[in-house]
# Entry
Amino acid sequence: MSIAASERELHDLGVVRHDWTRAEVRSLFELPFPELIFRAQRIHRLHFDPTEVQMSTLISIKTGGCPEDCAYCPQSVHYDTGVKADKLMRIDAVIAEARAAKSAGASRFCMGAAWREPKDRDLGKVCEMVAGVKAIGLETCATLGMLTQNQARRLRAAGLDYYNHNLDTSPEYYGEIITTRTYQERLDTLGHVRNAGIHVCCGGIVGMGESAEDRIGMLATLANLPAHPESVPINMLVKVEGTPLAAGEAIDPIDFVRTIAVARITMPKSVVRLSAGREDMSEETQALCFIAGANSIFYGPKLLTTPNPGRDRDLRLMDKLGLVPMG
Ligand code: SF4
# Structure
């Protein structure tokens, strides 16, 4: 591909494909920044209104005490981070949070539980939460760890619209980050979710000490799933004292924007979410991410246990940029 893409090449880039080679993804990462952003923006406009941003609110319905060892996570029992383990929230308290999120402008309500996988008796309560949140007119999303096919079906029957389960990083780097579940187990859960008719929310985290090649591998894996996730969260690591990744080097913001742009190009019809890490991101970096094709944010002052920009701050930024809530 020449550096400046022709109209035909841009059109072809906007077509949904599942056969991305790592060499192709690498060549996108290596484009001069203005060319990469131009292509991402053109493709974004083929499928989305570039002024619209989907807004989700995420709450922790069961915090801490997780037996998994994800090296970035303050909720793992393996690390001393000061996060206290709580029981599953009461159903009425979750519904009250959902009502507040809706009045504040969120269109989707995501419920996260720090579990390796849900026990069947807990899943019944989560299903009631899903049905209750759906009944007040919000889209529903959950992230509960690994699911069996039957559990995915139960969630769907309760009205679950989206299930989040991230691949986190490349298959090659994965073992450096998590040892208590395999990459294949993650792919299996994604398959169960997809088979149950639930939309898939799946992305990863950058800034965990991975190489540029790992970012390429992560996006190529996501883009080559049998169907692209409807929602692709790209997180910038939030370093939490006590976790193994607390002292690592931060990712360069321009590399982060490149990752967003390549996600947009390789998964043209997916909503790309600018997820964790915004609290420490400048307005300029966030603006570049929106130009590079990000069109979703987590909205609300907390992301599970880590801070997120307050609602006022986000609304001010959106106003400055002329962005409006999607839907
Ligand atoms: S990321 Fe999820 S599965 Fe991993 S330790 Fe944290 S709560 Fe557990």
Q: What stands out?
A: The radius of gyration is 19 Å. The mean pLDDT is 92. The CA atoms of residues 10 and 60 lie 41 Å apart.
